[in-house]
Structures
1.
Amino acid sequence: MGVGFLLAMVVISFFRELLGKGELFGYSLIAGNPLLIMILPAGGFLAVGLLMGFFNWVDMRFFGGKGASGV
Amino acid sequence: MDFGKLFELVVSSALINNFVFTMFLGLCIFFGVSKKMETAVGMSITFTAVMVVSAALSWVVYTFIMIPLQLTFLKIIIFIGIVAAFVQSADTIMKKVSPTLYYKLGVYLALITTNCIIIAVPLKNAGEHYNFFESMAFGLGSGLGFGLALVIMASIREKLEVADVPAPFKGLPISFILAGLIALAFTGFSGLITL
């Protein structure tokens, strides 16, 4: 369970830092201006929601699952 | 009693540094209880009442027992103990004194103990060395902000239940995206009062 949490945090922060600052580990990866919203608290919620939706989609499409219906 | 400072504390903890949308605290209860308006309103009223009393009790214990005896390093465990004891005693007393209110609240009174905000507020009060009224004002503001967040979420989530949401996003993912949009709106409050 702890490893799952670790992986989730790595994925979310990968997504947020890449889009919000344009850098990973200090190396600048995108040209142009980054999306500021991803670094704000609102971006955290949006990143988690979008990633949850993406994982549900992969589950439904490729593994025949029904998706987590959530709380 | 400086009313200006008290009002400033209430506004700042309710709107500017809203505990749910800016500091990500209390999220478990937030997503769990905000599905229906009735539960959201019940939870927010109960939480505000418990928060104000807990902030007051924690301040009293911190100032008159922990500082003189130099036990400030035990903040976390003592504050959690106070909150748990208070919620337990409120539970027991309410069952005897007004059973109708007890059954109406149901499980929410016990669920408040698991809310992150309930420990964050006394810790912040201790760290910033607020006086008694300032601690209570901070607790009141946090309760009001949490209640506002719950009511806004519940009113939109009720409508989301019957809306046409794509299948991967049904349930929790769309709620997170919704919370993100509301948090974006709350970003407009930042910088309103420079403390």
2.
Amino acid sequence: MNPINRSLSLSRRTVLTSLGAMGLTFLAPTRAFSQTASKAKLVIVILRGAMDGLAAVPKLDDPHLRQHRTSLVPNDTRPLRDGFALHPNLETVHGLFQSGDAAIVHALAGPWRDRSHFRAQDLLESGTDRTVTKDGWLNRALQVAPSSLSAVSIGPAQPLILRGQAPAASWSPPMLPEADDDTIGRLMDLYAEDDLLGPALAEAIQVDAVAGDAAKGLRGNQFVAPMGAAGRLIATEGGPNIAVVSLGGWDTHANQNGVLGNRLRQLDQGIAKLKEELGDHWRHTAIAVVTEFGRTVRQNGGQGTDHGTGGVAFVMGGAVKGGRMIGDWPGLAPNRLYENRDLYPANDMRGLFASLLHSQFGLTNRETARSVFPGSSGVRMIVTT
Amino acid sequence: MSIKGAIAVTRFGMGARAGEIVDVSSDPKGWLLSQLAEPDRAQIRGNDLLTTKQAVEETIAHFQRRRELQRQATSSERQQQLQMHNRKQREAFIADVSARNVHAVNTPDGFLERWVRFWSNHFTVSARKPELLRIVGPYERDAIRAHAFGSFETLLTNAVLHPAMLVYLDNQKSFGPNTPIAQRRKLGLNENLAREILELHTIGVDGGYTQQDVVEFARALTGWTVGSPRLRSRKIGETVFEERLHEPGDRTVLGVRYREAGAVQALAILKELARHPSTAEHLATKLARHFIADDPSDADILSLKRAYQDSDGDLTEVARSLINLDRSWEREARKFKTPEELLISSARLLGLPSVYGRGARRIYQSLGQAPFTAPGPDGWPDEAAAWAGPDAIKKRLEWANRTARLAAPASMPIAFVTDALGPLASERTRMAVNQAESRRQGLTLALMSPEFQRR
């Protein structure tokens, strides 16, 4: 007997309920979008390709800056504090900094040093210092968090940072007409013994049931649409606590000024959109914008920069005590550079993440050092909230 | 129909065409080995397809015209002209992808095609860089298809020194810092190509290289560039070696010293890299992951590594050894199809148009794998975890639903299951398809079935 035959006119939500009532076991562990007590929200934005931190946030009063970079220091920068400034295209970020809702951590890096994009991104998401794991640190954080949390990534592929045992959703707007509920019900039946496809389909349908039409029709450039979707999903009733967004195109080996300027403008518009969509949730939100590593302090032969070490992170949201430059600044003198080429990694990215997990979701630093970022017990916290 | 016949066609090939599993079932290994005897059949031919040289020349001319147009005053006419030129670029790209899709959908030599595409992904060049739109197609034809069945050293050299790769990984912007031209114009080294050859193409990220090796190799690679009018090269649109851009001096890479020898210096390094044990290990691991399982066993990797080393990197020998591995033939399909594999394998049976038109582009983008647009030089991922997320499954269902609407009038869903999977189809799938309330629903379920989503 096929139990779903009768459900031609069921709404998706009812399909879920009826399948749940039938005791289909693969639905049981799903809690990606269940109601949770915590109001706190965390958005991780990964800039893939290594954003040039010294062009985004130049230290203008360092006499070495213009010696290292004859043509890559932006004009018309927006002043911050302590001699730092923001790239002119980061208008929203600047406003948030001034109103106390944005902090900046410079000379930041993970514990990896080999300057490979893919390896560094994998490690950033693994939360490990040498060996890439199969699960991501944010997924492990979901597993050990004191209260039940839910998470979503924006995009068709689940990024490593959220892969693992804890259920986590991924979502992007539909591009083609969707299948009817009866077909979906039968397919769930067909996947009942499939450990990979069964849970994935169940998860997708649950997310859709919550997201509904809310996040359809988002327009904007390649950064604005996913950032807007993240904000809208979080703001939906029963929406997730955690969202992950990836934004690519930062690998500026050549002709950096134009490319980076465009990317930063899009990023800035994306942040504005995210804030707008979050609405009242902004108050409880922390957003961390990070990249796998920084770029070389000296410009290369093609008006660009190569893979480096220390980079920059933006930490924003109502939960953030902003208006500050946070962390140590190593300086740009040639003898202060890492391997005579990169900004010295004075601040450990894991300290930033661990501190956010603590302030937003109550994970203790001990627990974090044990299971979220193994081997990070000596790492100094970077407190932004 | 035999299980091994179905495996040969689906796991080693691009998916079954109607009746193909039956044809192959008597001698599946023989079918695969006979393809390797005729590697020329992996080539795509067509009168309208450009050679690399033509494509690079037209690209140079395109950007030249664009610059001229930008300088012209009247804006409406300029806009119109710009649009026309951009459209010409896109049309050439679409013609290349279409020819590639049509070939993959129609070829009787599915194993050759899968082998080519593996290496094309290993040596990824992405049209996300706009200047490569017209060159990625010729790159795959001239560098990959032509050399994927010979020695790895030849494939490596042809791939990394092809104009497309030199542009993609910025080697045409890398200048020997001590050359007069670099000193005069304040130009310098760009490490990108050297790093990715070590990390991605040869010894791998754990292969044991240092930052110093990257820099030394990058110095050796300076001078290898694309012939252009601006450089006043003798050959336009082809790979050239410009001595005056080359960093003079001896180089040391991975502990081996290479005498200054102009163009030959980088070639000698590539030769050593192709022979390096870490390269054998890296390539064997990626091949085992592609053909057997996301986490292949050490024993399988070792077998392929030995085949590589014993044959001095002969890729046809490596392919033979893969065919002779027992684990390649286990019934359980462990590999989850990438979107491209899914679309090609369904098109091979359903006879839908495979031209890369507007509708097709939308589908490829929706499923997250538009041809020749990999996000970075590491290519598309080859693991289920990257492709089987919740949203990806939903997108596949939307695709199956749409495809079934187009194809259902002309096909019987259960015949599709038999033709596509033969004895690999489970009873559960057959039943679900048989009990569907319409042909369309049956075909949707068949396309989405666990067996058809894997290979």
